Amino acid sequence: SAQQAEPATPATCGTFQTSGIFQDNKLQVQFLLYTPRNPTCGQAIHINQSGSIERSMFNSSLETKIIIHGFRVLGTKPSWTENLVEALLGAGAANVVLVDWVSGSTAKYSQSVENVPKLSSLLVALIKRFLDLGSTLESLHLIGVSLGAHVAGSIGEHFGGQIGWITGLDPAAYQFTRTHPEDRLDSGDALFVDAVHTDTDNFGIRIPVGHIDYFINGGRDQPGCPSLTNLYQYLICDHMRSVAVFISAVRGKCSFVGFPCSTYKEFQEGLCVDCETPKLSSCPRLGRKDGLIIPGEFEFQNFISNSQNYTSTVGYKTQEPPKEIQLFLLTTPEEPYCTHHILLEFTLSKPKAISITMEIQLYSADSSRSSKTKITIPKETLEGRGLAAHGTRLCLLDKVQIRVLTKSGFWRRGPEFTG
Predict the structure, then answer these.
(1) 147 Cβ contact list (under 8 Å, min separation 6)
(2) Phi and psi of 151, rounded to 5°?
């Protein structure tokens, strides 16, 4: 039988729009499709042109990842798009759709927020075309950055929460923190919703919005971000760290394990290192859709590779998966941000009448790698704990240095103790 001819690689590669502060900024949207057959050349597809998607590289038997950027202060293409597309295609065969709405997301933030429903309706129409061609809602993964996370939530709301997976990368805070869950990203928008928080004291939303929420380094003040001397980078660095860490996680550079804990302070104090909880069977890993298991009641188990869909294990009572689980993890200051969490404990030989605070600095054989943490032992107690993030494994540590912090705040001779 005659073999069906495959469409050729796109003759031209789609290019991102540019906008400006003084331009009209009317919403204009284009969809750029990347697949294993055109991984670096985005093919423009259109919902209002007959046969556009049918003639494209789109393959309905693959998962479909839709990337939605957020507010663009300067009206330029986001610098991270190629890296994210490359990471997603490197993780497994998929359709990757990059949504370009730079014109419509620049200059006035309030106007960009007003464009969210319009953009959402266009994406709903695109997804319906994909469904007509044989795709399933479960095979969709929406990845929204900042304001784009709430666009993803709006789309998920339209489809009754039946989309397979939504990831929000530092979902935008302004005009969304105090709104009703239906008006922002929330756990009801997909079968699985996860969010990554890196700037909760500025541009990013501080409340949990998914089934699980990763608060990287507590969700604020990311290590390695510049000081006020570079104002724009200072303002945007924490916010965009969510994207950089997610890309590193998708590439599989290391496992970004999230530990469930009530507060970041308790996590730093080493009080939340056990992954066995009533709601989780194991600590979830960023970039994967697994770990949400309520023992004996519900199993939401999906060790996601890019070719697997949502599954619910037979023999368990099906119910809504747990939501708003706060997970904490640490990273290093530089790419790929991989770290090893090391629990440090100090036990005194005998209790003291004053509290003792010590700074522990870890050094690995590579002298450029060091990390610090503090341990406080309250008065009349014996033990103190603290969590350190180090770029190399515990067995490769070269030196551990202990300093005692006095009440004056300067490193002087502190109380004598043994342990």
Answers:
(1) 70, 71, 105, 112, 113, 116, 172
(2) -60, -45
In whole angstroms, what is the distance from residue 144 CA to residue 126 CA? 16
Provide the β-strand partners of residue 389.
341
Cβ partners under 8 Å of residue 160, min gap 6: none
What secondary structure letter does DSSP report for 106?
Answer: B
How is 5-73 classified by DSSP, letter by letter?
PPPPPPSS--------TTS------EEEEE-TTSSSSPEEE-SSSTTTTTTSS--TTSEEEEEE---BS
State the pTM of this model.
0.86
Q: What is the CA radius of gyration of the chain?
A: 24
Beta carbons of 222 and 238 less than 8 angstroms apart: yes
Strands 43-45 and 356-364: unpaired
Chain centroid, CA 239 distance in Å: 11
- Report the amino acid identity of residue 248: S
Highest mean pLDDT among 11-15, 179-183, 267-271, 304-308: 267-271
Rounded to an integer, what distance in angstroms lies between the CA atom of residue 267 and that of residue 264? Answer: 5
Tell me how crowded residue 9 is: count the other CB atoms within 10 A of its CB. Answer: 11
Neighbours of 366 (CB within 10 A): 11
State whether residue 264 is helix, strand or coil: helix
Q: Which of 290, 247, 243 is nearest to 91 (CA)?
A: 247
pLDDT, one tens digit per residue, over 320-348 is 667 789 999 999 888 999 988 889 998 99
DSSP SS3 for 110: helix
| Two structure tokens written together for 71 | 């507010």
* 413: amino acid identity, one letter: R
Structure tokens given for 318? 């099906």
Just list the catalytic residues: 146, 170, 239
Q: How many CB atoms lie within 10 A of CB 295?
A: 13
Helix axes 231-250, 81-91, angle to 10 degrees: 10
DSSP state of 82: H
Residues 348, 80: Cα–Cα separation, whole Å: 49
What tokens does 233 get?
A: 């980078």
